[in-house]
Amino acid sequence: MTDDAVPASELYTDEFAADPYPAFAQLRADKPVCPVSSPRFDSYLITRFDDAKAALTDPRLSKDLYGPDQHYLRIFGPNSEGLNKNMLNSDPPEHTRLRRIVSQAFAPRRIEALRPRVAQIVDDLLDKIVPQGQSELMHDFAIPLPMRVISELLGIPEADHDRVLDWTQVIRTSGSSGRSPQEDRAAVQEAQLRLHHYFADLVQAKRAHPADDMISALIEACDHDGKLSEPELVTTSFLLLFAGHQTTADFIGNATVALLTNPDQLELLRASPELLPSAIEELLRFDGPLPVASPRIATEDVEYQGVSIPRGAIVGVVINSANHDPAHFADPDRLDLCRERGPHIGFGHGVHYCLGVSLARMEAQIGIGALLRRLPELRLGVPVAELRRLPAASPFRGLLELPVRFTA
């Protein structure tokens, strides 16, 4: 790591957690490829749009964390391999094989057929909220909506939804629980193990009694087609669960705050609900739930913006910074729902482009549209500065709580 590396403790502050965009702007201007040092691992952050887009397709930046160097140990820690060895952390041709198996379940026409069920889940959740005049929207709506949808797709029995959600939330909220770092790591490792065992048991149950769900289809690919190994079956199930609800939940929370703190845009969307599909894209560009793409490893010395990134270094492509690059977006720190739809990279770019993009867009459109329609005079329940967010160093940008009020 170079002498001009920025200590993670100086970058990932409480101010950064509340609003990282001033720090991103400074990095784009002064250190567009920024070395960051931390006790767990060092990394290089790529922050400008053109560089970020190039890095996301650079074959020298590998997603395979499970080679001889076992980079996953530095990034995820012990007990991680059982859940994280999947298509997200692999390169072609392995990634191509695994993605092809899963992609049929996320075909746009198949996802569109889910629209009535998603709308029903949204209405069921809001039916409980509407009479109260207030809500903690993350707990009551933003998290359970995508969690219920992906659980039903996978075939997780309804009786297990709450405990599976509890385990995922232990992982999601790591660093914000009030536990000591040692206790927090132990809790995360325990949740990882429980999820691994749960999916291993669920696979066996589905193997004995298959159903019309995604895990049963994956078992078919494993047992009859030989396209999937047993460990891949378990880790793919976990990836689909976590990726299928985490970022969508955080996005709904972020988007709600963005609208409530930009009342002119909120009123515009209320008056013109036909803008909702394009508004979702602008809201994702404005404050996406995945600030940094999942880690890459330099397989050889590479250079970006005159900065040499050595072989073996961890590289983070800062999506949320790239999506605020003024070289590509006019007045990028302003929410503009009428912005001409630009090439944001909120869903990634290249072969790792988000597989569940159609589902995420549909859930966001239905969910946010229903919030605005069914919760009159929706407003924050606390000043925006008092909102509790995930820790600054979290891989996700989201809220721990989102208290709101409205007219019952």
UniProtKB/TrEMBL annotation:
Keywords recorded for this protein, A-Z: Antibiotic biosynthesis, Heme, Iron, Metal-binding, Monooxygenase, NADP, Oxidoreductase
The keyword Thylakoid is assigned to this record: no
Keyword Iron in annotation: yes
InterPro entries recorded: Cyt_P450, Cyt_P450_B, Cyt_P450_CS, Cyt_P450_sf
Pathways per UniProt: Antibiotic biosynthesis; mycinamicin biosynthesis
Matches recorded under PROSITE patterns: CYTOCHROME_P450
CDD domains: CYP107-like
Family matches, as SUPFAM superfamilies: Cytochrome P450
One example GO MF annotation: heme binding
GO biological process: antibiotic biosynthetic process
Protein family per UniProt: Belongs to the cytochrome P450 family.
PANTHER family with a match to the protein in the record: CYTOCHROME P450 YJIB-RELATED, P450, PUTATIVE (EUROFUNG)-RELATED
Protein name as annotated: Cytochrome P450
